[in-house]
Write a structure and sequence with these properties.
The chain is of the alpha+beta class. The protein has 17 helices and 20 strands. The chain folds into two domains: 132 residues, Nucleic acid-binding proteins (OB fold (Dihydrolipoamide Acetyltransferase, E2P)); 259 residues, BirA Bifunctional Protein, domain 2, CATH 3.30.930. The radius of gyration is 29 Å and the shape is elongated. The two termini are 38 Å apart. The mean pLDDT is 94. It is found in: Cytoplasm. Its main location: cytoplasm.
């Protein structure tokens, strides 16, 4: 067996690192340390040149990026330069660079960051390229890039080393460019509707506004325990009280829960609140916003996720939770009048419930068990039980239910909206019921927020509010299988543990 065959992949990597470090040392000794370079003026990018070739042909441009490929033909080389827009071929030879500069160029490695000046042209084979007149090393790559990064097989490494993933997999970068465009389009839409973007605290003494366990921390300066916010709701409603009639915030929230394809402990939530409207107004706004964003970002109101087409151009379906459970589970909760009857129905249909659950909780369990997976096309599920909606205005004609909807696509909850509860007396009673739930073991129950109650006592106008899961929206619009695919740096388990 030869010595080459005995060499392990890790040993090959170690050898390459050693060689690159030796090259760096030689560069420093010769007074050409690449890490002292501070700036390089870029005048053109790869896709810009490709899209405007007829106007740019023959022009001299300056470019910078990463050396990603090399075809060595002795006194002439073709290399692939990868910049922020994509890749383009660079032609470098002794005649264009001069003997000394060409000799230095030949010692560069794949992964190095380089700058160049050259002329835009088309090769005899028809490929748009740049012929280099000057080249310089701007930063030395000391770790070799993988031949084929583990993105196809080792997704864990992709998420941990997203910087390598972005270099090696252009489709990953395209996903995050699209994510940025989605959020920009949302802002344009809301700004055009008269909404104002605001920022509210992330560190709070009372993490309310959602059913979730918070992360806890300690503020040394004041010797106080604080929590990371789980929602944006209660502070944004304070602004409605203060006379800011249309506000929204796009920001990170933090929930101390598990990891799966649709959940990450820190994620991006958008909440907006509009005075003098209700949950029907929030439905109309949601339809219009989703259509606008899809058209702006995708160029169509039809999106395809995992081979399934969803049409945002059609009116979104609207169904009550009671009717949805009746349709998909065959159980009519209009005919169930007591908690005992609800528990009997749950046992009959093998729906697990806890002793603390009320009739409305059990209705919601039926919905989660039998209905959600069927809501593929855009659907508003309306009128939830009051037990699971502590911040929502009751339906005047049926106070056991509230003016609330959840927006579903692809079987996923995409948004949650209310006619906001603005009665401080009712709100205090709801908080008390939540405290009782907490005492019975519900760690996700809300706690009484006295300052928020004080704000309601000052007076909050009738208001519609909604929260959108931005990451799930990005998953659908980019056809991404998991939430980690749309988070640049998802939460990962520490490898040292």
């Amino acid at each position: 067996m030869s010595e080459v065959e005995n060499t392990s992949p890790q040993q090959e990597v170690n050898d390459q690192v050693r060689i690159r470090l030796e090259k760096l040392d030689q560069l420093r000794q010769s007074g050409n340390d690449p890490f002292v370079k501070t700036r390089f003026e870029v005048s053109a990018y790869s896709e810009q040149i490709r899209a405007n070739f007829e106007e740019m042909e023959g022009q001299t441009v300056t470019m910078a990026g990463r050396l990603m490929g090399r075809r060595d033909m002795g006194k002439a080389n073709f290399i692939d330069l990868q910049d922020t827009q994509g890749r383009i071929q660079i032609f470098a030879n002794i005649g264009g660079l001069g003997e000394e500069e060409f000799k230095e160029f030949k010692r560069w490695d794949l992964g190095d960051i380089i700058g160049l000046e050259g002329e835009v042209f088309r090769t005899r084979r028809g490929e748009i390229s740049v012929k280099a007149h000057k080249m310089e090393l701007l930063s030395k790559s000391l770790q070799p890039l993988p031949e084929k990064f583990h993105g196809l097989t080792n997704t864990d490494m992709r998420y941990r080393q997203r910087y390598v993933d972005l270099i090696m997999n252009p489709e990953v970068k395209a996903t995050f460019i699209k994510r940025s465009k989605i959020i920009s389009a949302i802002r344009r839409f809301l700004d055009s509707q008269g909404f104002m973007e605001v920022e509210t605290p992330m560190l709070v003494s009372n993490a309310g506004g959602a059913a979730a366990r918070p992360f806890e921390t300690h503020f040394n300066a004041l010797d106080e325990d604080l929590k990371l916010r789980i929602s944006l709701e209660l502070y944004l409603k304070r602004l409605i009280v203060g006379g800011m009639d249309r506000v929204y915030e796009i920001g990170r929230v933090f929930r101390n829960e598990g990891l799966d394809t649709r959940h990450n402990p820190e994620f991006t939530l958008m909440e907006l609140y509009q005075a003098y409207t209700d949950y029907h107004g929030m439905m109309d706004l949601t339809e219009n916003m989703y259509r606008y964003v899809a058209q702006e970002v995708l160029g169509t109101t039809k999106i395809t996720y995992n081979g399934v087409e969803m049409d945002l151009g059609q009116p979104f379906a609207r169904i009550t939770m009671l009717d949805a459970v009746k349709q998909y589970a065959g159980v009519d909760f209009n005919e169930i009048h007591t908690l005992e009857e609800a528990r009997a129905a749950a046992k009959e249909h093998h729906v697990a419930y806890e002793e603390r659950h009320k009739k409305g909780d059990i209705l919601n369990l039926f919905f989660e068990e039998f209905v959600e997976e069927h809501l593929v096309q855009p659907t508003f599920v309306m009128d939830h039980p009051v037990e699971i909606s502590p911040l929502t205005k009751r339906k005047p004609q049926d106070p056991d239910y509230v003016e609330r909807f959840e927006f579903f696509m692809n079987g996923w909850e995409m948004a949650n909206a209310y006619s906001e509860l603005n009665d401080p007396i009712d709100q205090r009673e709801r908080f008390a019921a939540q405290e009782e739930q907490f005492s019975q073991g519900d760690e996700e129950a809300n706690h009484t927020d006295e300052d928020f109650l004080n704000a309601l006592e000052i007076g909050m106008p009738p208001t519609g509010g909604i929260g959108y899961g931005i990451d799930r929206m990005c998953m659908l619009f980019t056809d991404s299988a998991a939430i980690r695919d749309v988070l640049l740096f998802p939460t990962m388990k520490n490898l040292d543990k």
